[in-house]
Amino acid sequence: MKIAILGAGALGCAMGGVLTEAGHEVWLINRNADQVEAMNRRGLMLRTGGVDRTVAVHAATTAQPAGTVALVIVLVKSFHTAEAMQAATSLLGIDTVVLSLQNGLGHEDVLAGIVGRERLLAGKTYVGGTQLAPGHVLAGTVNKLTLLGEPGGGVSQRVLRIAALFNQAGLDTTVSENISGAIWDKLLVNVATGALSGITRLPYGLLYQSPELQACAVAAVSEAMAVARASGIILSIAEPLDAWRMAGAGLPFEFKPSMLQSLEKGSITEIDYINGAVVRQGEKVGVPTPVNQTLVACIKGIERGLAG
Hints:
Blueprint: E1 2-6, H1 10-21, E2 25-29, H2 33-42, E3 44-48, E4 51-55, E5 58-60, E6 69-74, H3 81-86, E7 92-100, H4 107-115, E8 120-125, E9 128-133, E10 136-140, E11 146-149, H5 157-168, E12 173-175, H6 179-200, H7 204-207, H8 211-230, H9 240-248, H10 258-264, H11 275-285, H12 290-307
Parallel strand pairs: 1-2, 1-6, 2-5, 3-10, 6-7, 7-8, 11-12
Antiparallel strand pairs: 3-4, 8-11, 9-10
Helix pairs in contact: 6-8, 6-9, 6-10, 6-12, 8-9, 8-11, 11-12
């Protein structure tokens, strides 16, 4: 299959690398010229299990060189979704499917307004990636689940076909008839560690050594679960501690979630689409979210400091 990954940062490169190794024509689209130049010059370097390997990939700073593709995987930061997709409509052919695997809530509605709701698949992935250098990524793909589904529920041939090719590439993928619940499940995992890692600047190995941080994470997830249930969402995560454990399962000591990676680059984060989404939905359904409100405030303060 011909695939474009729109927003090929660390996670997108990790997924795109293994899909390329499985024989698919994958275009990694990243507006960072240094990243693209490094991948086109020497290939994408993936590190798994402490060992580096090089994958020859197609990389570009815009969508135009890729032409039309069968599948667009959207992995841009949440706040760039509309801008990025509007600039990448050249990827769309008659039957192109657009799949969001972004963190947080609400991306499908943004994408639907640009590409049409009939093209959309929704999904969540627990695959991880950390940027080590331009074109060099620490990939967490082994035994990390990806869930795909039709936004309106049910199972289609197209989602089964895409799940099959992901599995053939070594990406553990399941089709969900309750993708809304799966999206909330992943949100709980992001709520557990993203903001706390960003605030403390700790990678997972050190983050998970602190009982105080675990307690804060569990409290934040408890609030998010209460909000989800009040909103009629059916969750598969049963206990708040499960989300905390899932977030770090199988990832290396030095792994950094995307929120910390953004702050280290001096960029704003997706806090408004993760903990902030919990706060907004909590207000709608009348569930208080003081822990998540505090985490949002702390991240916003750090962002303000970085902006000068």
